[in-house]
Amino acid sequence: MPDDAQPISPGPAATACRLPLCPDALALYASYRNHRFSRHAHEGYALGVIEAGALAFRYRGSRLVAPAGAVNLVQPGVPHDGEPAGDDGWRYRMLYLPAALLSMVLPDGAPLPHFRPGVIEDPLLAARVADTHRLLMDAAASQLARETALLALLALWTGRHADDRPASPPVGPEPRAVRLVLDLLAARFAENLSLHDLAREAGLSPWHLSRVVARHTGLSPHAHQRECRLRAARRALAGPDRLADIAAMAGFADQSHLTRAFAARFGLSPGAYRKIVQNTSALPG
What we know:
This protein is an alpha+beta fold.
């Protein structure tokens, strides 16, 4: 959804970070009021959402306008430019995605997806792009969370809007793979494991593994990892360790990250839970 509460910067402002799974993938958060991009083409795909203002660009022989809330995209090798569609400029969240990254969510041997439009009005996809982009730029997010969200976004995008709509590989019974993954997450919950780490143990591709675990357990690998971390933190709250030390022991980026996750899962803060546990254990009998 568009976020109009934050004004567009009067001058160019941009932050970027590299994405997981592929070293050449990039996330960009930027605002421009007067900037005009010269005509160019990308080696990979570009997918974004306009948060405020409007972006105009010439693409496939037409001048397109992507307003706030719209998804904008370009196909590899297709020339385009970019400029403000009005006096206020625009602010957007962009993902620059090598073809190898999209191939991870396609069946083996499937051709790379083709997208004809440069602007898509799809509120569900726009919200998913924005949410995934925020997660990818969150330094406190785990590797599993970032990778799972990115692949899920790519599968949603290709499944809803690619010209050929390639079907995802079927998810069959993989009890051994699921058990291996759950055991690994339980044993190494504090480590910043990646989907590649889990996939290597299970003998499956990262995306197929993520879908298999979710299909058979109802939770993604990242959700299982978070659950293991929260259980470890909950056990530790019966002891004397500081909350910051418990957060580090359980694999959370910091105490505030633990507090948010703990409250979302259990309905109260770690400190409040500790008081209940310690007061209860102090009762006689």
